[in-house]
Amino acid sequence: MTTIEQPATLAAFGPIWAVLAVGHNVADRVFGQSDHQAANKSTPKSEDVAAGANPRRGWAACLAHVGQYHMVMAAVLGLVWLFVPFHLSVTGVAAGFAWSAATHAVLDRRWPARRLLQHTGSPVFAELRTAGLNGMYLADLLCTNGRAALTLRCEAKCRQREATGDRHDPDRSA
Q1: From the centroid of its chain, how far is CA 90?
Q2: Per residue in 83-110, pLDDT tens?
Q3: What pLDDT digit, counting tens, does each position of 59-81 carry?
């Protein structure tokens, strides 16, 4: 059964995605990450760990970046909302940002993207760093877009539940 809230949710998805895409670029490339964080946020390679590096090395830089990133994202979303008042759910935004922060922290450790490339037949691409291309960076962008889509889905689902007063998942009801 279609309610008026479902088309409204779908209509808001595109503009909010655009705002988050701009926010991501500003946060990940300008204000939300220092050079130190970018250089030190990844998981140490296995040969470094074998040579004595702590396998947890990099978490402090990664979490500092993720915190800054989400503050910038919140500022961009809030600034746009002042001029284009999207109907946003506080619960949904909080849940979406929590999902985004958790997955961002794991993905920025680099091993998930490297493993994905290595296990899908692209181990050479995982190590590519020539001619202006970087395989890990491009794989990270793919993961970021997937993460953003799930973040928006989370926000939309919370907004839909708040609008209908439903506390169960309407997609799963018989």
Answers
A1: 18
A2: 887 777 788 888 888 888 988 888 888 8
A3: 999 999 999 999 999 999 889 88
Q: Are 16 and 155 in contact (CB under 8 A)?
A: yes
Residue 19 vs residue 85, higher pLDDT: 19
| Cα distances (Å, whole numbers) of residue 70 to 24, 67, 100, 140 | 9, 5, 8, 17
Query: Residue by residue, what is the 3-state secondary structure of 33-50?
Result: CCHHHHHHCCCCCHHHHH
Phi-psi region of 87 (alpha: psi -120 to 50; beta: other; left: phi over 0): beta
Distance CA 113, CA 143 (A): 8
The Cα 151–Cα 138 span in angstroms is: 20
What is the reported pLDDT for 8? Answer: 66
Taking alpha carbons only, the member of 12, 29, 16, 33 closest to residue 141 is: 29
- Cβ neighbour number for residue 128 with a 10 Å cutoff: 16
